[in-house]
Amino acid sequence: MSKTLHSGLRVLAVLSARGEGMTITEVAEAVGVHRTVAHRFLRTLEAHRLVRRDRAKRFHPGAGLVPLADPVERDLRAAALPLLEELADAVGATAHLVVQEDPEHVRALMVVEPRSASMHVAFRPGQLDLVDRGSAGLAILAAQPARPGERPEVRVAREQGYAVTYSEVIPSVHGISAPVPLRRDGAPLSVGVSVFDLAEQDRVAAAVLSTAAQLARVAG
After folding, report:
1. Which residue of 79, 85, 108, 212 could cross-link 219, Cys pair, CB 3.0 to 4.6 Å?
2. 74-219 CATH choice from 3.40.50.1820, 3.90.550.10, 2.60.40.10, 3.30.450.40
3. Within its chain, how far is the Cα of 115 from the centroid?
4. What is the CATH number of domain 3-68?
């Protein structure tokens, strides 16, 4: 692995995760390199429009990242968007499509907020979480063969077809997710919602399961 490339990509990851501008010194500390090295990384990324500098000389993710991200699962995202919008509006909660990135992690590929709910959970696409924490990851694990030492919640999710968790990824928030039947050559997926109240768990779970099945049909 190229250590230089690794550190440069870490700069982009740190800037994206921060959500606000960072100074050269802050970037250097976050990545674990000397300030001079961080400056060289930032200047190179800036030349490719992958980062931008504001008037206060703080660095942000650049517009050059947009065309790089657009092709990622383009067909899947296009198929999923109307289904997630329908799910979010039907249950009055934020809906999400999550993909397994590696054996240990899942990443939010899409996040769709309800259009009429007075209050809902908000988080950004791209969020990375442990696969064995939160309903999205547990649903993905439930669609796979049982593993020694897996959480009891995975077995329950395998039996009922969907996973339910509370306050595991976002404090005081319930998650309900269902696996999307595996696509050919595709990474494992789950569809779910994040809700404050589980008073209507059966209705919400039915809507999530229906969305997962629909997405499997149109994007399989």
Report:
1. 79
2. 3.30.450.40
3. 20
4. 1.10.10.10
